[in-house]
Structures are given as C-alpha cells and as structure tokens.
Design a protein that fits this description.
Pfam family, one: PTS_2-RNA
Largest sheet: 3 strands, antiparallel
Shape: elongated
Enzyme class: transferase
CATH architecture of the largest domain: Alpha-Beta Barrel
InterPro entries: Ptrans_KptA/Tpt1 (IPR002745), RNA_2'-PTrans_C (IPR042081), RNA_2'-PTrans_KptA (IPR022928), RNA_2'-PTrans_N (IPR042080)
GO molecular function: NAD+ poly-ADP-ribosyltransferase activity; tRNA 2'-phosphotransferase activity
Bound molecules: ligand HQG
Order of helices and strands: HEHHEEEHEHEHEEE
Organism: Micromonospora echinospora (Micromonospora purpurea)
Radius of gyration: 17 Å
Length: 167
C-alpha cells in the first residue's frame, strides 16, 4: 500500500488528487485486495501510515499520511515544534550529517521523531549501529524554519543545518 499510495500509484491504475487521496474502491481494485484486508492494514499498521476519510463528494478515500516521493500537497499547517526532536540513522550517515546537515533525500521533508526511542527504531531499519542525533528545534523555529506534524505524529522540516545538531 505504501508503494501504491506514496511512490508508484500508476502501477496500480491510480491517480491521486493534489492531496494524495484516492477513492478506497479504486485502491481495492488496483491492489486486488478486500475491504477487510484494507481495514486490517489501516488499523493494524505500526505507524498508522494510512488515513481514511470521506471526501468532499461523500466518497470514501485513503492516503498515506507522510513519506511520499510523488508530488503531493498534504495541506499541513506549520506548527511550533517541541524543544528537541530526534533523528536516528546509521553511523556513516551520521558522520556525513554532522558535516553537511540533514537533507531530505528522495522524500519531501526530513523526518524527525519526538522521542529518542522512536528515532532509534527509525535508525535501526537499515541494520548496523544506530546514532541518534538531537535537533534544537526550538532554535530552528526561532530562526524561521518551518515545522509540520503529520497525521501520524512524524515531525517534518525542509532541512536541518549543522548548527542545530548535536550527538
Ligand atoms: C540520511 C520511515 C548522509 C538519513 C521511518 C536517512 C521514518 C543523510 C536517509 C521515515 C544526510 C534517508 C523516514 C546527509 C540525511 N548525509 N545521509 N547529509 N541527510 N541522511 O528513509 O529519516 O516506514 O528517506 O539519516 O519511520 O530514515 O516510510 O529517511 O538515513 O519516519 O513510514 O538519509 O521512513 O517511515 O532515508 O526515515 P529515509 P528516514 P515509513
């Protein structure tokens, strides 16, 4: 479902709207899955990656709450971040990040966690030793950097310059 809703909707015959939404019925057809399977994924997903709601036309729709590589406007409103946010990554990446700052790569934003434990889990996805960097989000916000919080609690920002990173 992440592939269909974040990265390659065309492979499943889907055309998300500007906000990244597709009709639930279209996703079921495109992925050849049942409604019960979809409900189980939406409810059981460890990160609550998918949101289902009623569109303005009364048609039920679904989208990924973050993590897209296709262009989408999630309609997120800038929010004041907590004082510190965290980024978990591998040791080599951490070296490079300490030198050049955090970059968003293929995603729309840099992804930050509100607690160390979650950041550690994100960083451990690739195997190997994990480094958790601390972001002085309050200072970034004071300096005019914008932060957004996705529907599933992931903090997003465009980039984190080196001066705001420790760890
Ligand atoms: C690294 C998962 C070298 C960065 C998770 C990361 C998250 C640099 C990788 C979400 C760098 C990008 C995002 C620099 C950044 N030099 N490496 N200057 N700047 N990096 O997957 O944060 O399962 O795009 O440390 O739970 O790991 O998709 O980002 O290792 O919320 O829902 O470049 O993905 O969520 O990798 O993970 P990613 P991420 P989902």
């Amino acid at each position: 479902m992440s592939l269909a809703l974040r990265h390659e909707p065309g492979r499943f015959g889907l055309t998300p709207d500007r906000g990244g939404w597709v009709p639930v019925a279209d996703l079921l057809r495109g992925m050849r899955m049942t409604r019960a399977e979809l409900d189980a994924v939406v409810a059981g997903n460890d990160k609550q990656r998918f949101a289902v709601d009623l569109g303005p036309d009364g048609v039920e729709r679904i989208r990924a709450s973050q993590g897209h590589s296709i262009p989408v406007d999630l309609g997120l409103v800038p929010q004041a971040p907590p004082e510190h946010l965290y980024h978990g990554t591998g040791r080599e990446a951490a070296e490079s990040i300490r030198a050049t700052g955090l970059h968003r790569g293929g995603r729309h934003h840099v992804h930050l966690s509100s607690d160390v434990e979650t950041a550690r889990r994100v960083g451990s996805r690739r195997g190997g030793p994990v480094v958790v960097l601390t972001v002085d989000a309050a200072a970034m916000a004071r300096d005019g950097h914008l932060f957004y919080c996705s529907a599933n609690g992931v903090w997003l920002t465009d980039a984190v310059p080196v001066g705001y990173l420790t760890g």
